[in-house]
Amino acid sequence: MIVLGSTSEVAQAFVEKALQEGEKFEKIYLFTSNKETTERFARHIDVKFLQQSEVIEIDLMREIDYNSFDHVSSNVLFCAVGYLGDGTEEGLYDNRNTERIIDINYSKLVPVMNYFAQKFESRRSGTIIGLSSVAGDRGRQSNFIYGSAKAAFTAYLSGLRNYLFDKKVHVLTIKPGFMATKMTEGLPLNPKLTATPKQAAAGIYKAFKKQKNVAYVLPVWSIIMMIIRNIPEFIFKKLKL
């Protein structure tokens, strides 16, 4: 398995869920911008599951040497890369913040995804799982920079799924709602609409095994976002969402 964004609690929970369910991986490639933290997780799955892994440093904000991981090969790719950034009004007009949100969530991520997608295509097998967001379903004033980047990533995954379908490669788009992770720590989240990393991992694994195309981590979010998407614009623009 290839894991992009392997410091993500959801990514780590998914790896553990897959191993607990008996999935067999010759090696798990843990791509990370935080090698120390990821090496602790690598030791953990080695001790608990006797799972061999390799930690590979990658920083989307720097030039990437693709030759350094040309040896990486797998049948499952799990992408949990994400950056929420500063969603305040100050953050909105901070171009560095805006660029970082767009770069990490989309523009610098897509070339890496394409690199591995080409490998999957050449083997004509595999599953690519990408974590997008419900924030990408419709732009809302509270987080529309982040939401616009996730909307672009959702569209990318949709097109990739369409393109790779007859190449025998499946693409699964996951749309988490609120999740209790380090990224959302301190935010006032409704507990009834918030999933833990373990809950998210269980839902994602189920969608993976059922070969779903698009899945919401908590089913209630599909209803919520259907309502939000269908509010007429002349009403929607007046709402504080």
Describe this structure in words.
Belongs to the short-chain dehydrogenases/reductases (SDR) family. InterPro entries: NAD(P)-bd_dom_sf (IPR036291), SDR_fam (IPR002347). This is SDR family NAD(P)-dependent oxidoreductase. The chain has nine helices and nine strands. Helix content is 44%, strand content 15%. The protein has 241 residues and is α/β, with parallel strands linked by helices. The mean pLDDT is 95. It is globular and about 55 Å long.
Elements, N to C (H/E) = EHEHEEHHHEHEEEHEHH
Helix content: 40-55%
What is the helix tally? 9
Using only C-alpha atoms, the radius of gyration works out to 18 Å
Structure at a glance:
The chain is an alpha/beta fold and 241 residues long.
Topology:
Blueprint: E1 2-4, H1 9-20, E2 28-32, H2 35-49, E3 53-57, E4 76-79, H3 89-92, H4 95-107, H5 109-123, E5 127-131, H6 144-164, E6 170-175, E7 178-179, E8 194-195, H7 197-209, E9 214-216, H8 220-229, H9 233-236
Parallel strand pairs: 1-2, 1-4, 2-3, 4-5, 5-6, 6-9, 7-8
Name the features.
241 residues; alpha/beta; 7-stranded parallel sheet
